[in-house]
Amino acid sequence: MLEEKILNDYKQAMKNRDTLKSSVLSFLRAAMMNAATEKKKKLLEDDEVIVVIKKQLKQRQDSIEQFRKGNRQELADKEAKEAAILESYLPEQLSPEEVAGAVEEAIAATGATGPKDMGKVMKEVMSRAGASLDARLVSELVRKKLSGA
């Protein structure tokens, strides 16, 4: 299970005195515990852990953007290193070409005709490939396809 791997990697990072990795994994473990408590579970399923990781990753990416706007490159670099650690626990992402193909299939399957159908198409694409997709890229591609349709 992914949750066990994260725990073992956290323990190893602590032994190796890798402060950055142990800090990132500590925050991730806390977020996973919070999510498990909300769902009234002892352990999360792998897909639930991936949702938590993606949420943490999005926070890091938003921070990077804000730090760059504020000319704080050293903080942006630190957040980028943390994001790289989190990304290592995510499944392999599909290429933009594969995502575009999935979007085309979903548009055909749902019979979407315009931007008002974006929610249906997004739901269809995410249900087919979920964890291996970057939701931001999917949203962008769906918006382009439907506004040009």
Helix-strand topology string: HHHHHHH
Q: Helix- and strand-based class?
A: mainly alpha
> Can you tell me the CATH architecture of the largest domain?
Orthogonal Bundle
CATH topology of the largest domain: Hypothetical Protein Yqey, Chain: A, domain1
Largest sheet: none
| Separation, N- and C-terminal Cα atoms | 42 Å
Write the layout of secondary structure elements.
Elements: H1 2-15, H2 19-38, H3 46-69, H4 73-87, H5 96-110, H6 118-129, H7 135-148
Summarize the structure in words:
The protein has 149 residues and is mainly α. The chain has 2 domains: 2-87, Orthogonal Bundle (Hypothetical Protein Yqey, Chain: A, domain1), CATH 1.10.1510.10; 96-148, Orthogonal Bundle (Arc Repressor Mutant, subunit A), CATH 1.10.10.410. It has helices at residues 2-15, 19-38, 46-69, 73-87, 96-110, 118-129, 135-148. α1 runs antiparallel to α2, α2 packs across α3 and α5 (96-110) packs across α6 (118-129). It is globular.
Pick out its properties.
149 residues; mainly alpha; Hypothetical Protein Yqey, Chain: A, domain1; Arc Repressor Mutant, subunit A; 2 domains; globular
Condensed summary:
The radius of gyration is 18 Å and the shape is globular. The protein has seven helices and no strands.
